[in-house]
Amino acid sequence: MSRAELRAVGLVRRYGGLTAVDHVDMSAPPGMITGLIGPNGAGKSTLFKLLTGVEQPDEGAVLLGDRDISKLRPDKRSRLGLVQTFQVPSLFTSMTVRDNLLVGVENRRRDYGGGLFGLGVRKNPSHEQVVDDMLASLGLSDLADFVAGSLPTGALRLAECARALCAHPDVLLLDEPASGLDAVETERFSALLRRIADAGVAIVLVDHDVDLVFTVCDQVYAMVGGKVVAHGDPATVRANPTVQSVYLAQGSVAA
Amino acid sequence: MVSVELAIAGLAIGAVAALSGIGLLVTYRTNGVLNLAHGGIATLVAYVYREMTVEWGFPVWLSAVIAMAFLAPGLGLLLERLVFRPLARRRASAAETLVASLGVLVLSLGMCAGIWGLGTRNDTPSIFPDERVGSGSWSIEVDTLSTLALILVACVFLGVVQNRTRFGRQVRAVVDDRELAEMSSIPADRVAAVGWAFGTTLAGFTGVLLAPRFGLSPYGLSLVVLTTFAVIVAARLSSLPVAVLTGLAIGIAQSELTQFSVTGVFADTYRTLTSSLFVVVLLVLLLLSPKLRELGGDAGSAGRLSSREAPERGTLGERHKNLIIIFAGIVMLMAPLFFGAADLRKAFLVPALALIFLSLVIVTGYSGQVSLGVAGYAGLGALFSLKLEAGEFPGLPEMPGLLAILIGALLVAPIGLITGYPAIRRRGLALALTTFAVGATVTVFVFNQPDLSVGVYAEPLYLGGWMLNDKAFYIVEMVGLGLGLLAVYNLHRGRLGRALVAVRDHTEGAAAVGVDVRNLKLLAFTVSSVVAGLGGALLSHSTGSFSSTQFEPMQSLLWFTAVVVFGADSAVGAIIAAAFIVSINVFFPEGSSTLAVGILALSLGWLPGGLASAVRGLVRFVALRLADEFVEPEGTAPRPRIPSQAGVLTPAAQPTTGRSPAAVAPGGGVTVDLTAVDRVAAARGLTLTPFGRSLLGRLGGGAPAAALPVAASLPGPNGASPVTAGTGTLNHPEGGRP
Ligand SMILES: Nc1ncnc2c1ncn2[C@@H]1O[C@H](COP(=O)(O)OP(=O)(O)OP(=O)(O)O)[C@@H](O)[C@H]1O
Ligand SMILES: [Mg+2]
């Protein structure tokens, strides 16, 4: 099955005098894990917002496959297969984890179109099955019936990933999904990412855990001050002098 | 064709609007609060001023000094200290602050209405001598001249303070980040207090200047002041000069319009325009200016208005809970059928009002949007159905009353859709103000048009050739309420319900997984307008005719506040709110319900989450104490039961207090099926003690509510604990999801 590639072309986003995203070109091909690193305030989350349509770029375009999706609303983009998780988990706090995932399944594109605004009350038993399978495969079954607002952040992040997966993405944008996970969990999480990518999904991973990014990703973009300063396979980016200096200055990385 | 005379006449109103705008801006800039209560305070000060001059015979100057130099700033200081400082302290959401300022508005209007009644008084003396200076067409009223001078002084003063003094720098620091400012030892509270005092002083001036021109009535005058929001919207809540110039410009333009006259169908519309330009400008600015969409942050996202203090911990075991409470509620609503004729007629208002409140539950509680224009939709439903009934609705045949009520309500749908479309694209204060402006515009251009709305009477209703008597009408109302509840129920279950809650809980997160946010909000908005229309239609049938005062724009604000107070996402709360308001109006003088709602709304500052949540907190406290009394300690064998227990207890489950019949509280005084309580407890692996059973039975609580903060951070598979059974005592509007 051929899935679409996500491309950003010359994206610019300014906040007053500050250019948070500065002419960024990027591509996330199917089946690959694309890493995106950069110090705080580099513009990674803002780039995500432009890609998913939460915010409009001042310049540039977002392409999914051959289609220019720059003008579409976020939910429409999501139904085309572009799904994101947020830096601050965005679970629906008054619902159970299971219902959170159900929302993901129920609004995904393949099931869209029937009923009022695609929201007929027709009950689809397979939806619940999908959710249960997803919960099981992420080891979340025990939490299924807990209200999302009561969970600790680690579980929230995992549940948010599960909800995103339920939406059946072609492209999955993950904003710091592994922050707050311990070493063992991170290990398991990277295996999960691999599995998803192997199914043909394009993943874009933002994380401050540079080791995780460099091990699990197929290609890496490094951003500083809104600009892409390095791009290539992990080894190349890691060796890049700008990346070196930024991260050594921050003291958070191991070269 | 600019006429100097008209321009100068227009300046009078324009200048007052500008003054009001300055007050609003100062409060906003120093506190971050868009003071919806501005009009209420203006009205209150004007009433006190009139009382002093007219009733007590004080000289005008003395009354003016007392009102403007002591009363008005004092009110500001009081509000800051008692209402808004606590909110700022706990970093309350913008939505909560919005509700608090609505609370102040409702409270001040309630005080005016309670003390001085709802009628209009035209004898307020002007502070300034009623003279003109200058000559010929260039003469200007002293009143206007003084207002202009006041504006000039205020602007210069503010400019100097802001740019030249340490205080100005402190203001800016506080506005940027109050906590940070406090840490650098800036007296943030003092800055906020001064801002409030200044704002309310100008509000006082506004009221006292407007009262002689427009007459003094609680709703009327505060509405005039609210329309001056056009000025600060034009200024985008920041620029003082823009606000002043806009105020003067609208005033002049409105006055200049009077030199023309339009004949034909638009004659009335045009004439209305010449007196209501501020409302129109407010609406147009809000609709046309895309940059205003997010005016002032997220105040309009009402997710935080939920009566449930999210996030709740523990499991959500049962979803459809409290069936017994709902059943009891229905029994209570049926009670008026056994009232005497006069009381039954008073009870007519309850289901109608409950429907209007339900419409707010849909749009605010479920879809998370502030709506301050519900009276407009309700009034349209009323007008449409009465016109249909009389065969006066253009393009539609005369129809029997019952059908007319239904069709009239449905006809509101297209209007809800059209007005909802721009509204839902706005957030925050922009949404709140847009819905308000829509409601006010409808009132001005439809409800206040004598041709359209005077002498519109309800005909007796017939069903199958039988004229419906009062009881039958009440049953019709119950059926209407049932329809509304059905709409709520359908919006709240299954795929649609989940999607709506998702949008309310986290709009961006919902969009990120494909939920069609815009259409969902639109759906909720439209359904809500129909439900409001149905409520309005029943309301006008209960009173026998269409009355524009029933649906005035200020009602929208009062109703919205009431719904939030009783739990914005609770359908049962909506019904209780309606019963509460109607019974207060029956038992106490007019305006008392406004006063009561205002007091309750302000108590939200201390009881975040609303009354429902406060009751819930109290119950939890009691339950924790009583937990051991209720439930057999785990691990011990259940005590042998006394066989005749249920039989003995059931009679005891009668109401112990003589409730006023109109103040229905679901669950109050209804025999409860105790076995249900036991069943639920058993399902949770708990055994009730006899005391627990008796208390549950007495309080009429049904199945224990599912989610209760169980003291577990990462809960185990079974969140049940002794405390959970304690929730069975809940005897409050929590069962909001029928
Ligand atoms: N709504 C906004 N208004 C103004 N400035 C903003 C806004 N959103 C982001 N910025 C600024 O844009 C820059 C980029 O922010 P962004 O959140 O994209 O960084 P990031 O790379 O995700 O950082 P982090 O690693 O901390 O998440 C920052 O300087 C931030 O302050
Ligand atoms: Mg970020």
TrEMBL record, chain A:
Keywords: ATP-binding, Nucleotide-binding, Transport
The keyword Lipoprotein is annotated on this UniProt entry: no
Pfam families in alphabetical order: ABC_tran, BCA_ABC_TP_C
GO MF annotation, one: ATP hydrolysis activity
Domain ABC transporter: 6-250
Signal peptide as annotated in the record: none
A cellular component term, taken from the record's GO annotations: plasma membrane
UniProt xrefs under SMART domains: AAA (SM00382)
PROSITE patterns assigned to the protein according to its UniProt record, in alphabetical order: ABC_TRANSPORTER_2
Name of the protein in its database record: ABC transporter ATP-binding protein
Domain of life, source organism: Bacteria
TrEMBL record, chain B:
GO molecular function, one term: branched-chain amino acid transmembrane transporter activity
PANTHER family: AMINO ACID ABC TRANSPORTER PERMEASE PROTEIN (PTHR11795:SF445), BRANCHED-CHAIN AMINO ACID TRANSPORT SYSTEM PERMEASE PROTEIN LIVH (PTHR11795)
Top-rank taxon: Bacteria
Places the protein is found: Cell membrane
Membrane spanning stretches: 6-26, 33-50, 56-78, 98-118, 138-161, 191-210, 269-288, 323-341, 347-363, 400-421, 428-447, 472-491, 557-588, 594-615
Topology versus the membrane: Multi-pass membrane protein
Annotated keywords: Amino-acid transport, Cell membrane, Membrane, Transmembrane, Transmembrane helix, Transport
GO biological process terms held by the UniProt record: amino acid transport
Organism: Frankia nepalensis
CDD domains: TM_PBP1_LivH_like (cd06582), TM_PBP1_LivM_like (cd06581)
Protein name: ABC transporter permease
Residue segments, region Disordered: 634-665, 710-738
Family: Belongs to the binding-protein-dependent transport system permease family. LivHM subfamily.
